[in-house]
Specification:
This protein has helices at 22-32, 62-70, 90-98, 109-122, 136-146, 151-165, 180-195, and strands at 11-15, 37-38, 42-43, 58-59, 74-80, 84-89, 103-106, 126-132, 173-176. With 196 residues, it is an alpha/beta fold. Helix 1 (22-32) crosses helix 7.
Length: 196
């Protein structure tokens, strides 16, 4: 096993701008490598068509989210696009890592930064991966083609994406999502180095 100096496996954190295809790449990765465990985040936003509670996200209301946060149950939390809270439940992440199961978080930029803040205090070794679009124009097209946001929401997400793209240099690894298959293969290469 390839383990860190502390003897623990490294957590893989995948982030990138909105609509870059994080979820699609992660789904492709899991189809090819079902042994990978992807953390399920909690969120206060409403489910989109086809999303399942406990599978896609843990859908909770603002009151329950605040209670979980107060109890220290999250690795990280963030208010995303000033619209909804998201958080990564800590306990299942630690359980999977301690069992030697390849563990990945697919989160937004704010969440990745909060993981960086808490990683040392929790004794977590982390490799940070940034998924980038081939171009900003490609990102605009992807967001429009999703059809999951109205025009105002799309504009908010694009403004956020500009800021997120500027942070690419903060990450250990950058993968360009030119094709889903290629990006998933590159992500597996990162994971397999940590859990081979």
């Amino acid at each position: 096993m390839n383990e860190s100096a502390s003897g623990k496996h490294r957590l893989v954190v995948l982030t990138g701008p909105t609509a870059v295809g994080k979820g699609t790449v992660e789904a492709q990765l899991r189809a090819a490598h079902p042994e990978v465990w992807v953390s399920v985040s909690a969120t206060t936003r409403a489910p989109r068509p086809g999303e399942l509670h406990g599978v896609t996200y843990w859908f909770v209301d603002e009151q329950e989210f605040a209670a979980m946060e107060k109890r220290g149950e999250f690795l990280e939390t963030a208010l995303v696009h000033n619209m909804a809270h998201y958080g990564t439940p800590l306990k299942p992440v630690l359980e999977h890592m301690n069992a030697g199961i390849p563990t990945i978080l697919e989160i937004d930029l704010q969440g990745a930064r909060r993981v960086k803040e808490r990683a040392a205090e929790l004794g977590l070794d982390v490799v940070y991966v940034f998924l980038a679009p081939p171009s900003f124009e490609d990102l605009i097209a992807r967001l429009a083609s999703r059809g999951t946001e109205n025009e105002e929401q799309r504009q908010k997400r694009l403004e956020t994406a500009k800021v997120e793209l500027a942070s690419e240099g903060e990450y250990d690894v950058v993968i360009t999502n030119d094709t889903v298959e290629h990006a998933a293969e590159e992500l597996w290469n990162v994971i397999s180095r940590e859990y081979a």
